[in-house]
Design goal:
Layout (H helix, E strand, L loop, with lengths): L4 E2 L20 E2 L6 H8 L3 H14 L5 H14 L11 H16 L6 H18 L8 H12 L5 E2 L6 E2 L1 H13 L4 H7 L5 H14 L4 H18 L2 H14 L7 H15 L27
Parallel strand pairs: 1-2
Antiparallel strand pairs: 3-4
Length: 295
Amino acid sequence: MLGVVLVALASAQAPIGDVPAALVDHVVGPHSPHFDLELLYTEGRYREMLEAARERYRAHPEDADLAWHMARAYYEIGEDFERTNQAMDKESWYREMWDVVEGALAKKPDDPHLRFARGIAIGRYGTTRGVLASLFLAKQVEADWVAAATSGYKYRSLGGEEEMPCDVYQALAIYYRLVPDWWIVQAIAGTRGDLHKSVAYGEKAVACSPHRIRNLKELGVAQVCLGKRTEDAALVDKGLGTLRRALAEVPSSASEKVDLNHVPRLLADPDLACAYSRDGQQDLDRSNLPEAPPP
């Protein structure tokens, strides 16, 4: 088995009553590798976690797993800043995250956790630059996430801040919604979006982890977007109901607090759904498509 599932064994750990049984394969405790980083992650001490993991990786560059610990910290820190916030150079931040994971994949090229992390790094780098400007990156993101989703890799952080494969399904729901389904995108990127796939992956994410705000929010957004595109008022209403379900849940991480804050905005203006991204609305105007990928 490639992964381990971290569950409650100590008072510092969260109960696992909402963990799907299929995810509970191995029970490990404070003796587990990098358990201190897991605790920092669950406690939301992301900068401390990043520095600790970075220092350890310098001392033990052969330990590729440290890269996905670092990647999670990069991600959570970056999610505090919308794309237009000048307080952070988000392109450089996600490029750095990408480089860290890329280096680790040279050591463990088929590792699902690292491939999931690389897809996140490239995806966030892409949404920061703009989806249309970054279509040349889309095929790698899709390949990484599909590989992780179909790998059989099962993992849950201490408080459910990260769950696999649930989070990979959710990521694919976002991917197939934000990447346009135009034929010209297929020609440029070698892949294209698919709103039906977006809804299907959103449903898989919610079935895998039904009480996560991120999963309910993304399924609701996908349902509203598909309903709007197909003029299916019942599906739009269903999506709005899914979004309302998210309001009853408790955030499991800093990024889920952002998700919870965004839900009322999406309910108030369902027209935001198709271009919605947690770090800011995307420009999906076909007239802004690049003619070719950069050299």
